Structures are given as C-alpha cells and as structure tokens.
Amino acid sequence: MKASSTLLRLILFGCFLLGSREATAQCNATISVSTIESRCKATGQIIVSINGGSGSYNYKIINGTFSSVTSSNIISGLVAGTYSVEVKDLISNCVYK
Fold this sequence. Notes:
It is built from no helices and ten strands. By secondary structure, the protein is mainly β. Strands 1, 2, 6, 7, 9 and 10 form a six-stranded antiparallel β-sheet that branches.
C-alpha cells in the first residue's frame, strides 16, 4: 500500500538553496527535509531525515527532466533550481512525495 503523499518542493533561488518542509504519511514515518545554500555553484544540499518506517530507503530527486535515485539521505552537488524529493521505504514499499 502506498502512503498518502504530500509534495515536498524545494526551491533554490539564485545563489541560495532555501526551504524546509515536513510531511507525514500513513505508513508510520515522518519525513523532514532541510537544505544548505548553493553558494552560486553546484554545492547545494538536500538532507532528508526520516523518523519511523523500516530504516531502508531509496531517495529520488527530481528537477525538471533530471532525476536521480540514491540510497544516501544527503543529496549534494545541486545548483539553483526547484527540486522534488521522493522517498521509498524498501521494506514496506511506502512512497513519500
């Protein structure tokens, strides 16, 4: 069963990566996302923290036509832009958007 989802949208303005958002889903995990500014280069980061769930996750970052999947909760090397984050619990198959 997929989790009910709340979109996590992060916006990078100019030289800064801004934003923090929390979403709670039905699959018993709470996802929070924080960011670190990009400093006008590809040095921005999105850090995903999860409380609950199985402990085994994949993280997908989407920016327009670009998307990348990783097992790391720290996604780095980001330039200014708008990013969405999707987290998949690999045990329960819950997806948090």
